[in-house]
Write a structure and sequence with these properties.
107 residues; globular; RRM_dom; mRNA binding; 27% strand; 5 strands; alpha+beta; Alpha-Beta Plaits; single chain
């Protein structure tokens, strides 16, 4: 998987997403707390991704971006961590991590 704390939001605008963490998925979080996570299996859900990222720190919310036409994940997500330090640890720990058996995580 690819994990970065630097990303462009334009690709995700207007797409439905699933939030995890008990809060409103429209809640405002500092951009410094968001990590872009790509190259994941299309079948991953927010609970699986939150469980993985909790190894790096506190997870506030997970947003999975879905394709409007198919209802399937688009293969990238946003994880909102509890602190900037947690984001740094997550990026270092999971960038290049193979989720789901393949080097890039996809099945």
């Amino acid at each position: 998987m690819a994990v970065s704390s630097e990303f462009e939001m334009e690709d995700a605008e207007g797409e439905p997403s699933e939030g995890e963490g008990g809060g409103d998925s429209k809640a405002e979080y500092s951009e410094d707390l968001k990590a872009f996570v790509g190259n994941l299996p299309f079948t991953i859900d927010s609970a699986q991704l939150a469980g993985l990222f909790e190894q790096a720190g506190s997870v506030e919310m997970v947003e999975i971006v879905y394709n409007r036409m198919t209802g399937r994940s688009r293969g990238f997500e946003f994880v909102i961590m509890g602190s900037v330090e947690d984001v740094v640890v997550a990026v270092e720990q999971f960038n290049g991590y193979g989720f789901g058996g393949n080097a890039d995580g996809r099945r």
